[in-house]
What we know:
CATH class of the largest domain: Mainly Beta
Number of strands: 18
Number of domains: 2
Strand order of the largest sheet: 1-2-3-4-5-6-7-10-11-12-13-14-15-16-17-18
Largest sheet: 16 strands, antiparallel, barrel
Low-confidence stretches: 1-18
Radius of gyration: 29 Å
CATH topology of the largest domain: Porin
Order of helices and strands: HEEEEEHEHEEEEEEHEEEEEHE
CATH architecture of the largest domain: Beta Barrel
Structural class: alpha+beta
Oligomer: single chain
Amino acid sequence: MKKIITLSAIAIFATAIYAEDNTQAQIDALKAQIEQLQKTQDKKIAKLEKKTKRNTKKISAVNKLANNDNLKFGIDFRTAYDYIDYKRADGSRDTNDVFSNRLWMKMAYAPTNNISFFGTLSYYKIYGQVAQAHPGMDQMDWVVNSTAGSTNTLRVKEAFFLYKNDTFMGMDIPWTASVGRRPSTDGLLVNYRDDQKAKSAIGHNINMEFDGASIYYLLENVTDISGMSLKFCFGRGMSDVNSRYSGIDKNADGTYSMNPSHNYGDTPGFSNTDLVGILFNPYDDGQYSLHTVWFDAFNLPGMYATGTPNKYDFKQHGDVQGGAVSFISDGIGDGITDMLDDTIFFASVAYSKTNPDSGETMLGSSESETGTSYYVGANWPCQLIDDARIGVEYNHGSKYWRSFTYGEDTLAGSKLAVRGDAYEVWFNKELIGKILTAQVRYTYIDYKYTGSNAFFGDGGTPMTMSEAVAAGQNPIDSSQDVRVYLRYRY
Protein backbone atom coordinates (compact mmCIF):
# COMPACT_ATOMS: atom_id res chain seq x y z
CA MET A 1 0.00 0.00 0.00
CA LYS A 2 2.81 2.41 0.93
CA LYS A 3 4.45 1.52 -2.32
CA ILE A 4 1.28 2.39 -4.26
CA ILE A 5 0.89 5.69 -2.40
CA THR A 6 4.54 6.57 -3.01
CA LEU A 7 4.27 5.79 -6.72
CA SER A 8 1.08 7.85 -6.95
CA ALA A 9 2.72 10.79 -5.22
CA ILE A 10 5.69 10.59 -7.56
CA ALA A 11 3.35 10.50 -10.57
CA ILE A 12 1.37 13.51 -9.33
CA PHE A 13 4.57 15.44 -8.63
CA ALA A 14 6.02 14.59 -12.05
CA THR A 15 2.77 15.58 -13.75
CA ALA A 16 2.78 18.90 -11.93
CA ILE A 17 6.36 19.56 -12.97
CA TYR A 18 5.54 18.64 -16.58
CA ALA A 19 2.44 20.79 -16.48
CA GLU A 20 4.46 23.68 -15.09
CA ASP A 21 7.10 23.25 -17.79
CA ASN A 22 4.42 22.98 -20.49
CA THR A 23 2.64 26.07 -19.14
CA GLN A 24 5.92 28.02 -19.20
CA ALA A 25 6.51 26.93 -22.79
CA GLN A 26 3.02 28.10 -23.71
CA ILE A 27 3.62 31.43 -21.95
CA ASP A 28 6.92 31.87 -23.80
CA ALA A 29 5.22 31.08 -27.11
CA LEU A 30 2.41 33.48 -26.26
CA LYS A 31 4.92 36.21 -25.41
CA ALA A 32 6.65 35.66 -28.75
CA GLN A 33 3.31 35.90 -30.54
CA ILE A 34 2.44 39.09 -28.66
CA GLU A 35 5.83 40.61 -29.56
CA GLN A 36 5.34 39.69 -33.22
CA LEU A 37 1.83 41.13 -33.19
CA GLN A 38 3.19 44.30 -31.58
CA LYS A 39 5.84 44.63 -34.31
CA THR A 40 3.22 44.09 -37.01
CA GLN A 41 0.92 46.60 -35.36
CA ASP A 42 3.74 49.13 -35.04
CA LYS A 43 4.49 48.79 -38.77
CA LYS A 44 0.81 49.22 -39.64
CA ILE A 45 0.61 52.28 -37.40
CA ALA A 46 3.78 53.69 -39.02
CA LYS A 47 2.28 53.21 -42.50
CA LEU A 48 -0.96 54.84 -41.41
CA GLU A 49 0.97 57.74 -39.88
CA LYS A 50 2.88 58.14 -43.18
CA LYS A 51 -0.34 58.35 -45.12
CA THR A 52 -2.00 60.67 -42.59
CA LYS A 53 1.06 62.87 -42.50
CA ARG A 54 1.00 63.29 -46.29
CA ASN A 55 -2.71 64.13 -46.29
CA THR A 56 -2.64 66.54 -43.35
CA LYS A 57 0.81 68.13 -43.27
CA LYS A 58 -0.04 70.95 -45.64
CA ILE A 59 -3.39 71.55 -43.91
CA SER A 60 -1.64 71.62 -40.51
CA ALA A 61 0.89 74.10 -41.87
CA VAL A 62 -1.93 76.30 -43.10
CA ASN A 63 -3.62 76.16 -39.68
CA LYS A 64 -0.37 77.20 -38.00
CA LEU A 65 -0.17 80.20 -40.27
CA ALA A 66 -3.49 81.42 -38.94
CA ASN A 67 -2.21 81.61 -35.34
CA ASN A 68 -0.57 84.97 -35.94
CA ASP A 69 -1.86 87.78 -38.10
CA ASN A 70 1.26 88.25 -40.20
CA LEU A 71 3.01 86.91 -43.29
CA LYS A 72 5.39 84.00 -42.64
CA PHE A 73 8.65 83.76 -44.57
CA GLY A 74 11.00 80.88 -45.34
CA ILE A 75 14.33 80.59 -47.14
CA ASP A 76 15.64 77.93 -49.53
CA PHE A 77 19.14 78.88 -50.72
CA ARG A 78 21.38 76.63 -52.80
CA THR A 79 24.88 77.20 -54.11
CA ALA A 80 25.99 74.65 -56.71
CA TYR A 81 28.84 73.58 -58.94
CA ASP A 82 28.04 71.84 -62.25
CA TYR A 83 30.51 70.25 -64.61
CA ILE A 84 28.84 70.21 -68.04
CA ASP A 85 30.06 68.07 -70.93
CA TYR A 86 28.55 67.91 -74.43
CA LYS A 87 29.66 65.48 -77.12
CA ARG A 88 28.61 66.28 -80.67
CA ALA A 89 27.86 63.89 -83.51
CA ASP A 90 31.28 64.54 -85.08
CA GLY A 91 33.02 63.55 -81.84
CA SER A 92 33.99 67.07 -80.73
CA ARG A 93 33.36 68.07 -77.13
CA ASP A 94 32.39 71.22 -75.25
CA THR A 95 32.91 71.28 -71.48
CA ASN A 96 32.52 73.93 -68.82
CA ASP A 97 32.46 74.56 -65.07
CA VAL A 98 29.40 76.46 -63.90
CA PHE A 99 28.86 77.92 -60.42
CA SER A 100 25.38 79.16 -59.54
CA ASN A 101 23.29 80.52 -56.69
CA ARG A 102 19.56 79.83 -56.40
CA LEU A 103 17.33 81.53 -53.84
CA TRP A 104 13.67 80.75 -53.17
CA MET A 105 12.07 83.17 -50.76
CA LYS A 106 8.85 81.54 -49.59
CA MET A 107 5.90 83.28 -47.98
CA ALA A 108 2.53 82.18 -46.61
CA TYR A 109 -0.39 83.65 -44.72
CA ALA A 110 -3.72 82.21 -43.54
CA PRO A 111 -6.16 84.85 -42.22
CA THR A 112 -8.73 82.08 -41.54
CA ASN A 113 -8.73 78.30 -41.33
CA ASN A 114 -10.26 78.08 -44.81
CA ILE A 115 -8.26 80.46 -46.95
CA SER A 116 -4.54 81.02 -47.29
CA PHE A 117 -1.94 82.54 -49.58
CA PHE A 118 1.35 81.01 -50.72
CA GLY A 119 4.11 82.66 -52.70
CA THR A 120 7.72 82.06 -53.79
CA LEU A 121 10.16 84.60 -55.15
CA SER A 122 13.02 83.18 -57.18
CA TYR A 123 16.55 84.27 -58.03
CA TYR A 124 18.82 81.93 -60.02
CA LYS A 125 22.15 83.33 -61.21
CA ILE A 126 25.43 82.09 -62.60
CA TYR A 127 28.48 83.42 -60.74
CA GLY A 128 29.74 86.59 -62.38
CA GLN A 129 28.68 88.28 -65.58
CA VAL A 130 27.87 85.93 -68.46
CA ALA A 131 30.32 86.68 -71.29
CA GLN A 132 27.68 87.02 -74.03
CA ALA A 133 24.18 87.34 -72.65
CA HIS A 134 21.52 86.76 -75.32
CA PRO A 135 18.10 86.95 -73.65
CA GLY A 136 15.64 84.96 -75.72
CA MET A 137 13.94 81.66 -75.05
CA ASP A 138 15.72 81.52 -71.66
CA GLN A 139 13.42 84.40 -70.63
CA MET A 140 10.25 82.51 -71.62
CA ASP A 141 7.80 82.30 -68.75
CA TRP A 142 7.77 78.48 -68.77
CA VAL A 143 11.46 78.23 -67.87
CA VAL A 144 12.59 81.59 -66.53
CA ASN A 145 12.77 80.59 -62.84
CA SER A 146 14.55 77.32 -63.65
CA THR A 147 17.19 78.81 -65.95
CA ALA A 148 20.43 80.02 -64.40
CA GLY A 149 20.83 83.49 -65.85
CA SER A 150 23.19 86.44 -65.97
CA THR A 151 21.30 88.96 -63.83
CA ASN A 152 20.29 89.39 -60.20
CA THR A 153 16.59 89.63 -61.10
CA LEU A 154 14.15 88.47 -58.44
CA ARG A 155 11.06 86.94 -60.08
CA VAL A 156 7.75 85.50 -58.95
CA LYS A 157 7.86 81.70 -59.13
CA GLU A 158 4.59 80.99 -57.26
CA ALA A 159 1.72 83.14 -56.00
CA PHE A 160 -1.70 81.61 -55.37
CA PHE A 161 -4.74 81.55 -53.10
CA LEU A 162 -5.88 78.26 -51.58
CA TYR A 163 -9.36 77.62 -50.22
CA LYS A 164 -10.07 74.42 -48.27
CA ASN A 165 -13.09 72.84 -46.65
CA ASP A 166 -13.83 69.53 -44.94
CA THR A 167 -17.14 68.92 -46.72
CA PHE A 168 -18.41 69.42 -50.26
CA MET A 169 -22.15 70.05 -50.78
CA GLY A 170 -22.91 68.30 -47.48
CA MET A 171 -20.83 65.22 -48.33
CA ASP A 172 -17.80 64.00 -46.37
CA ILE A 173 -15.40 65.08 -49.12
CA PRO A 174 -12.50 67.35 -48.10
CA TRP A 175 -11.65 69.66 -50.99
CA THR A 176 -9.49 72.59 -52.01
CA ALA A 177 -9.61 75.21 -54.73
CA SER A 178 -6.67 77.29 -55.88
CA VAL A 179 -6.01 80.11 -58.35
CA GLY A 180 -2.87 82.05 -59.29
CA ARG A 181 0.66 81.16 -60.37
CA ARG A 182 0.57 77.49 -59.59
CA PRO A 183 3.30 75.21 -58.12
CA SER A 184 3.69 73.08 -61.26
CA THR A 185 7.43 72.30 -61.15
CA ASP A 186 9.32 69.78 -58.98
CA GLY A 187 6.38 67.37 -58.98
CA LEU A 188 5.98 63.73 -58.00
CA LEU A 189 8.90 61.39 -58.84
CA VAL A 190 11.24 64.30 -59.62
CA ASN A 191 11.01 65.41 -56.00
CA TYR A 192 13.03 62.44 -54.69
CA ARG A 193 16.32 63.41 -56.34
CA ASP A 194 15.61 67.09 -55.66
CA ASP A 195 15.20 66.29 -51.96
CA GLN A 196 11.90 68.09 -51.41
CA LYS A 197 8.17 67.56 -51.08
CA ALA A 198 6.32 66.75 -54.27
CA LYS A 199 4.31 69.57 -55.78
CA SER A 200 1.22 69.42 -57.97
CA ALA A 201 1.70 67.41 -61.13
CA ILE A 202 3.44 64.12 -61.97
CA GLY A 203 6.96 65.21 -62.89
CA HIS A 204 7.34 62.61 -65.62
CA ASN A 205 5.64 64.78 -68.24
CA ILE A 206 4.71 68.06 -66.49
CA ASN A 207 7.50 70.18 -65.03
CA MET A 208 7.11 73.80 -66.08
CA GLU A 209 5.57 77.02 -64.83
CA PHE A 210 1.93 77.96 -65.42
CA ASP A 211 -0.62 80.48 -64.27
CA GLY A 212 -4.03 78.91 -63.69
CA ALA A 213 -6.39 77.21 -61.27
CA SER A 214 -7.15 73.81 -59.75
CA ILE A 215 -9.80 72.08 -57.67
CA TYR A 216 -9.08 68.94 -55.64
CA TYR A 217 -11.35 66.35 -53.97
CA LEU A 218 -10.30 63.67 -51.47
CA LEU A 219 -12.75 60.82 -52.15
CA GLU A 220 -11.62 58.10 -49.73
CA ASN A 221 -14.31 58.85 -47.13
CA VAL A 222 -17.17 58.25 -49.57
CA THR A 223 -15.60 55.41 -51.58
CA ASP A 224 -13.84 53.52 -48.73
CA ILE A 225 -10.82 53.30 -51.05
CA SER A 226 -7.68 54.47 -49.30
CA GLY A 227 -6.25 57.71 -50.67
CA MET A 228 -8.55 58.02 -53.69
CA SER A 229 -8.58 61.59 -55.00
CA LEU A 230 -9.51 63.64 -58.05
CA LYS A 231 -8.09 66.95 -59.23
CA PHE A 232 -8.96 69.25 -62.15
CA CYS A 233 -6.36 71.73 -63.43
CA PHE A 234 -6.34 74.61 -65.87
CA GLY A 235 -3.26 76.55 -66.95
CA ARG A 236 -2.48 79.31 -69.41
CA GLY A 237 1.02 79.21 -70.86
CA MET A 238 0.71 82.08 -73.36
CA SER A 239 -1.91 84.85 -73.53
CA ASP A 240 -3.34 86.26 -76.74
CA VAL A 241 -2.94 89.81 -75.42
CA ASN A 242 -1.36 93.02 -76.68
CA SER A 243 0.15 94.76 -73.68
CA ARG A 244 0.05 98.53 -73.43
CA TYR A 245 2.18 100.34 -76.01
CA SER A 246 3.12 97.09 -77.78
CA GLY A 247 0.31 97.95 -80.27
CA ILE A 248 0.74 95.66 -83.26
CA ASP A 249 -2.19 95.44 -85.69
CA LYS A 250 -2.67 93.33 -88.77
CA ASN A 251 -3.57 95.36 -91.84
CA ALA A 252 -6.01 94.30 -94.57
CA ASP A 253 -3.15 93.48 -96.92
CA GLY A 254 -1.59 91.10 -94.38
CA THR A 255 1.14 93.49 -93.21
CA TYR A 256 1.52 94.73 -89.63
CA SER A 257 1.68 98.27 -88.26
CA MET A 258 1.92 99.95 -84.88
CA ASN A 259 -1.32 100.89 -83.12
CA PRO A 260 -0.60 102.20 -79.60
CA SER A 261 -4.31 102.53 -78.79
CA HIS A 262 -4.93 98.81 -79.22
CA ASN A 263 -4.24 97.88 -75.58
CA TYR A 264 -4.91 94.33 -74.32
CA GLY A 265 -6.65 93.33 -77.51
CA ASP A 266 -5.94 90.23 -79.58
CA THR A 267 -2.38 89.63 -80.76
CA PRO A 268 -2.41 89.13 -84.54
CA GLY A 269 -1.57 85.56 -85.54
CA PHE A 270 -1.74 84.12 -82.03
CA SER A 271 -4.27 82.35 -79.83
CA ASN A 272 -4.20 81.53 -76.13
CA THR A 273 -1.98 78.58 -75.21
CA ASP A 274 -4.03 76.69 -72.62
CA LEU A 275 -3.72 73.38 -70.83
CA VAL A 276 -6.46 71.39 -69.09
CA GLY A 277 -5.69 68.32 -67.01
CA ILE A 278 -7.17 65.67 -64.75
CA LEU A 279 -5.18 64.01 -61.98
CA PHE A 280 -6.79 60.86 -60.55
CA ASN A 281 -5.22 58.82 -57.76
CA PRO A 282 -7.07 55.48 -57.55
CA TYR A 283 -5.27 54.24 -54.42
CA ASP A 284 -2.82 55.33 -51.74
CA ASP A 285 -2.46 53.44 -48.44
CA GLY A 286 0.74 55.17 -47.36
CA GLN A 287 2.97 52.44 -48.74
CA TYR A 288 1.59 51.58 -52.16
CA SER A 289 0.05 54.22 -54.39
CA LEU A 290 -1.08 54.69 -57.98
CA HIS A 291 -1.18 58.10 -59.68
CA THR A 292 -2.54 59.07 -63.10
CA VAL A 293 -2.70 62.24 -65.16
CA TRP A 294 -4.25 63.17 -68.51
CA PHE A 295 -4.00 66.58 -70.18
CA ASP A 296 -4.69 68.42 -73.42
CA ALA A 297 -2.68 71.50 -74.42
CA PHE A 298 -3.83 73.86 -77.17
CA ASN A 299 -2.10 76.18 -79.64
CA LEU A 300 1.48 75.24 -78.86
CA PRO A 301 4.35 77.34 -80.25
CA GLY A 302 7.62 76.58 -81.97
CA MET A 303 10.15 77.70 -84.55
CA TYR A 304 9.57 77.15 -88.27
CA ALA A 305 11.73 77.57 -91.34
CA THR A 306 10.78 80.69 -93.33
CA GLY A 307 12.30 79.48 -96.60
CA THR A 308 15.28 81.79 -96.29
CA PRO A 309 18.45 79.80 -95.45
CA ASN A 310 19.13 79.66 -91.68
CA LYS A 311 16.20 81.98 -90.93
CA TYR A 312 13.41 80.89 -88.58
CA ASP A 313 10.30 82.48 -87.14
CA PHE A 314 8.00 81.67 -84.23
CA LYS A 315 4.33 80.66 -84.46
CA GLN A 316 1.72 78.25 -83.11
CA HIS A 317 1.40 74.82 -84.69
CA GLY A 318 -1.35 72.77 -82.99
CA ASP A 319 -2.30 70.76 -79.90
CA VAL A 320 -0.69 68.03 -77.82
CA GLN A 321 -2.35 65.64 -75.42
CA GLY A 322 -0.62 63.30 -73.03
CA GLY A 323 -0.82 61.28 -69.88
CA ALA A 324 1.07 59.16 -67.38
CA VAL A 325 0.48 56.30 -64.95
CA SER A 326 2.88 56.10 -62.01
CA PHE A 327 3.25 53.43 -59.31
CA ILE A 328 5.11 54.12 -56.05
CA SER A 329 6.14 51.69 -53.32
CA ASP A 330 7.18 53.65 -50.23
CA GLY A 331 8.78 50.66 -48.51
CA ILE A 332 9.41 47.25 -50.08
CA GLY A 333 7.72 44.31 -48.39
CA ASP A 334 6.78 44.27 -44.73
CA GLY A 335 9.50 43.87 -42.15
CA ILE A 336 12.00 42.06 -44.38
CA THR A 337 14.80 44.45 -43.39
CA ASP A 338 14.93 47.98 -42.02
CA MET A 339 16.57 49.16 -45.24
CA LEU A 340 13.82 47.72 -47.45
CA ASP A 341 11.19 49.26 -45.15
CA ASP A 342 12.74 52.65 -45.98
CA THR A 343 13.37 52.02 -49.70
CA ILE A 344 11.27 53.84 -52.28
CA PHE A 345 10.70 52.33 -55.73
CA PHE A 346 8.70 53.89 -58.57
CA ALA A 347 7.83 53.11 -62.17
CA SER A 348 5.99 55.38 -64.59
CA VAL A 349 4.78 55.13 -68.20
CA ALA A 350 3.77 58.23 -70.21
CA TYR A 351 2.68 59.17 -73.72
CA SER A 352 2.31 62.29 -75.88
CA LYS A 353 0.30 62.76 -79.07
CA THR A 354 0.45 65.70 -81.47
CA ASN A 355 -2.51 67.12 -83.37
CA PRO A 356 -1.22 69.63 -85.97
CA ASP A 357 -3.45 72.44 -87.22
CA SER A 358 -4.55 72.20 -90.84
CA GLY A 359 -1.62 73.00 -93.11
CA GLU A 360 0.86 72.98 -90.21
CA THR A 361 3.51 70.55 -89.02
CA MET A 362 4.38 69.54 -85.46
CA LEU A 363 7.72 67.94 -84.66
CA GLY A 364 8.40 67.92 -88.40
CA SER A 365 5.28 65.96 -89.35
CA SER A 366 1.89 67.00 -90.73
CA GLU A 367 0.42 63.80 -89.27
CA SER A 368 -0.50 63.04 -85.67
CA GLU A 369 2.51 61.40 -84.01
CA THR A 370 2.62 59.47 -80.72
CA GLY A 371 5.62 59.32 -78.41
CA THR A 372 6.17 57.20 -75.32
CA SER A 373 8.44 57.31 -72.30
CA TYR A 374 9.12 55.27 -69.22
CA TYR A 375 10.80 56.32 -66.01
CA VAL A 376 11.96 54.04 -63.18
CA GLY A 377 13.92 54.72 -60.05
CA ALA A 378 14.72 53.67 -56.51
CA ASN A 379 16.29 55.31 -53.49
CA TRP A 380 17.26 53.98 -50.08
CA PRO A 381 19.09 54.98 -46.88
CA CYS A 382 22.87 54.79 -47.19
CA GLN A 383 24.18 51.92 -45.06
CA LEU A 384 27.63 53.45 -44.54
CA ILE A 385 26.72 57.07 -43.74
CA ASP A 386 23.97 58.22 -41.38
CA ASP A 387 21.21 60.60 -42.53
CA ALA A 388 21.96 60.04 -46.20
CA ARG A 389 20.12 58.54 -49.16
CA ILE A 390 21.26 57.06 -52.46
CA GLY A 391 19.13 57.05 -55.60
CA VAL A 392 19.33 55.64 -59.11
CA GLU A 393 16.99 56.60 -61.98
CA TYR A 394 16.53 55.71 -65.64
CA ASN A 395 14.54 57.42 -68.41
CA HIS A 396 13.77 56.32 -71.95
CA GLY A 397 11.92 58.30 -74.62
CA SER A 398 10.86 57.30 -78.13
CA LYS A 399 11.32 59.15 -81.44
CA TYR A 400 8.29 61.47 -81.09
CA TRP A 401 8.24 61.79 -77.29
CA ARG A 402 7.45 65.35 -76.20
CA SER A 403 7.22 66.25 -72.52
CA PHE A 404 6.29 69.55 -70.87
CA THR A 405 9.41 69.57 -68.70
CA TYR A 406 11.08 72.83 -69.73
CA GLY A 407 11.42 73.83 -66.07
CA GLU A 408 13.50 70.80 -65.07
CA ASP A 409 16.62 71.84 -63.18
CA THR A 410 19.34 69.86 -64.96
CA LEU A 411 21.77 72.28 -66.60
CA ALA A 412 22.78 69.88 -69.39
CA GLY A 413 19.16 69.57 -70.57
CA SER A 414 15.95 67.90 -69.41
CA LYS A 415 16.54 64.18 -68.89
CA LEU A 416 12.75 63.75 -68.70
CA ALA A 417 12.48 64.99 -72.30
CA VAL A 418 15.15 62.65 -73.68
CA ARG A 419 14.55 60.87 -76.99
CA GLY A 420 16.93 58.12 -76.10
CA ASP A 421 18.21 57.08 -72.68
CA ALA A 422 19.16 58.93 -69.51
CA TYR A 423 20.93 57.51 -66.47
CA GLU A 424 21.26 59.20 -63.12
CA VAL A 425 22.71 58.45 -59.70
CA TRP A 426 22.53 60.80 -56.73
CA PHE A 427 23.60 61.03 -53.08
CA ASN A 428 21.78 63.35 -50.65
CA LYS A 429 23.17 64.00 -47.16
CA GLU A 430 21.73 65.85 -44.17
CA LEU A 431 24.48 67.90 -42.55
CA ILE A 432 22.32 69.69 -39.97
CA GLY A 433 18.98 67.93 -40.32
CA LYS A 434 17.03 69.39 -43.23
CA ILE A 435 18.40 72.86 -42.46
CA LEU A 436 21.75 72.27 -44.20
CA THR A 437 22.03 69.51 -46.80
CA ALA A 438 24.39 68.47 -49.57
CA GLN A 439 24.06 66.59 -52.85
CA VAL A 440 26.33 64.91 -55.34
CA ARG A 441 24.56 63.98 -58.58
CA TYR A 442 25.62 62.56 -61.94
CA THR A 443 23.40 62.66 -65.03
CA TYR A 444 24.25 61.06 -68.39
CA ILE A 445 21.95 61.61 -71.39
CA ASP A 446 22.37 59.58 -74.60
CA TYR A 447 20.33 61.09 -77.44
CA LYS A 448 19.09 58.72 -80.14
CA TYR A 449 17.13 61.48 -81.92
CA THR A 450 17.48 65.26 -82.14
CA GLY A 451 14.94 67.77 -80.82
CA SER A 452 14.60 66.45 -77.26
CA ASN A 453 14.67 69.89 -75.62
CA ALA A 454 12.94 71.88 -78.38
CA PHE A 455 9.40 73.23 -78.59
CA PHE A 456 6.68 71.99 -80.96
CA GLY A 457 7.70 73.27 -84.39
CA ASP A 458 10.52 72.39 -86.78
CA GLY A 459 13.07 72.52 -83.97
CA GLY A 460 11.43 69.43 -82.51
CA THR A 461 11.86 67.35 -85.67
CA PRO A 462 13.45 64.02 -84.69
CA MET A 463 16.45 62.88 -86.71
CA THR A 464 19.04 60.24 -85.96
CA MET A 465 22.58 61.48 -85.52
CA SER A 466 23.55 60.21 -88.99
CA GLU A 467 20.49 61.85 -90.60
CA ALA A 468 21.33 65.17 -88.93
CA VAL A 469 24.95 65.01 -90.07
CA ALA A 470 23.80 64.23 -93.63
CA ALA A 471 21.60 67.36 -93.44
CA GLY A 472 24.63 69.49 -92.58
CA GLN A 473 24.01 69.61 -88.82
CA ASN A 474 26.26 68.65 -85.92
CA PRO A 475 23.84 67.94 -83.05
CA ILE A 476 24.51 66.96 -79.45
CA ASP A 477 24.97 63.19 -79.30
CA SER A 478 25.32 62.92 -75.49
CA SER A 479 25.59 65.17 -72.46
CA GLN A 480 26.75 64.87 -68.87
CA ASP A 481 26.16 66.93 -65.75
CA VAL A 482 28.06 66.43 -62.49
CA ARG A 483 26.47 68.51 -59.75
CA VAL A 484 27.63 69.23 -56.19
CA TYR A 485 25.63 71.58 -53.97
CA LEU A 486 25.12 72.93 -50.47
CA ARG A 487 21.55 73.91 -49.57
CA TYR A 488 20.15 75.88 -46.66
CA ARG A 489 16.45 75.73 -45.78
CA TYR A 490 14.64 77.42 -42.96
